[in-house]
Amino acid sequence: MEKSVERRENGRIRFSWPLWFGYEDQGQLFRGQISDLSNTHISFTIEEHLCPPIGQHLMTRFSYPINSLNSFEMDSYLHWGEVVRTDSAVGHNRRVALRLHQPISLQPQITADTDEVLAATA
């Protein structure tokens, strides 16, 4: 059995909240479900027929926790990102990895060897 290869250099938080994305400013938005988030990348699942191609730039909108898991302080992201990978997911879904054009700050800084997990609240 081959060991899974970590593709990100920095740590991430895992949670299951909604994300909206579109192909143009003020255009139609599509809903995905966030899988995890780092300072520079986000991954989300989407129905297979809505999956954007690798290299596609997307306008994304989502909220994320900014402090600890014991706090409900949130921030929002509304900016462009680029699809860097898509993978199969459960059922007729795809998992999309998106590089954020404008990095976010997760407080406290999450280190590469530590993953934090948030319960699904969406």
Question: What does this protein look like?
Answer:
The structure is a single chain. The chain has 122 residues and is mainly β. The chain has one domain (13-107): Beta Barrel (Thrombin, subunit H), CATH 2.40.10.220. It has strands at residues 13-14, 18-22, 30-37, 41-47, 57-65, 74-88, 93-100, 116-117. The protein has a six-stranded antiparallel β-barrel with strand order 2-3-4-7-6-5. β6 (74-88) and β7 form a beta hairpin. The protein starts with 12 loop residues before the first strand and ends in a 5-residue tail after the last strand. The relative contact order is 0.29. Residues 1-6 and 109-122 have low confidence and may be disordered.
Number of domains: 1
Q: What kind of sheet is the major sheet?
A: 6 strands, antiparallel, barrel
What is the rounded distance between the termini?
34 Å
- The helix content is under 10%
**Going across the major beta sheet, what is the strand order?**
2-3-4-7-6-5
Helix tally equals 0
Name the CATH superfamily assignment.
Answer: predicted glycosyltransferase like domains
Mean pLDDT across all amino acids = 81
For the record, the CATH architecture stands as Beta Barrel
What low-confidence regions span 5 or more consecutive residues with pLDDT below 50? 1-6, 109-122
CATH topology: Thrombin, subunit H
What is the CATH C-level name? Mainly Beta
Form type: globular
Order of helices and strands: EEEEEEEE
Radius of gyration: 14 Å
Q: What is the tally of beta strands?
A: 8
